[in-house]
C-alpha cells in the first residue's frame, strides 16, 4: 500500500492568513512552488493560496498585493489528507474536489504537499489519465 507520505513532496511550509500576498509571492519564489497552505493563528489549515490566485484575484483587479492578505483570498473548505492515507484516498480527495494540490497532515502538523507532478511520478498511466480526466473535466 502506497501512502500519501510516500508520494508527497516533503517540507511544505505554511504562510499565516494575516501575511500579505506580496510576501506570499516572495515565499513561493524562494521555495520554487506555486501554492502555499494558509494557516490560522493556531497553525491549522484554513486554505491554500496559489500564484494564480494572486494574479487573477488581486493584481488583475487592480488591488495592491502588499495590502491584501492570504486570508482575504482563502475561500471554501480547505482539503487535506492524512500522511498515512492510501494513494486511492488521495486520488478520491483530489478528483472529487477537482484540486491539483493537496496538503499532507500528520499529527495535526503540515508535513508535505502532493501535486500533479508527485502523482505523475507514482501512478500508473491509467491512474494518471483518470485523475486528469476527473480534475480537468468541466461541470
Automatic annotation (TrEMBL):
SMART domains: CBS. The keyword Zinc does not apply. Keywords: CBS domain. PROSITE patterns: CBS. The keyword Cell membrane does not apply. Residues 8-66, 73-130 form the CBS domain. InterPro entries: CBS_dom, CBS_dom_sf, Diverse_CBS-Domain. This is CBS domain-containing protein. It comes from Streptomyces caledonius.
Amino acid at each position: 500500500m502506497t501512502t500519501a507520505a510516500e508520494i508527497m513532496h516533503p517540507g511544505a511550509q505554511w504562510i499565516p492568513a494575516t501575511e500579505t500576498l506580496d510576501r506570499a509571492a516572495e515565499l513561493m519564489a524562494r521555495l520554487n512552488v506555486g501554492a502555499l497552505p494558509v494557516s490560522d493563528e493556531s497553525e491549522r489549515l484554513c486554505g491554500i493560496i496559489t500564484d494564480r490566485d494572486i494574479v487573477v484575484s488581486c493584481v488583475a483587479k487592480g488591488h495592491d498585493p502588499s495590502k491584501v492578505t492570504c486570508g482575504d483570498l482563502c475561500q471554501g473548505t480547505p482539503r487535506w489528507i492524512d500522511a498515512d492515507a492510501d494513494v486511492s484516498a488521495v486520488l478520491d480527495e483530489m478528483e472529487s474536489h477537482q484540486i491539483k494540490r493537496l496538503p499532507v497532515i500528520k499529527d495535526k502538523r503540515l508535513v508535505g504537499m502532493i501535486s500533479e507532478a508527485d502523482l505523475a511520478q507514482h501512478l500508473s498511466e491509467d491512474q494518471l489519465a483518470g485523475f486528469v480526466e476527473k480534475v480537468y473535466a468541466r461541470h
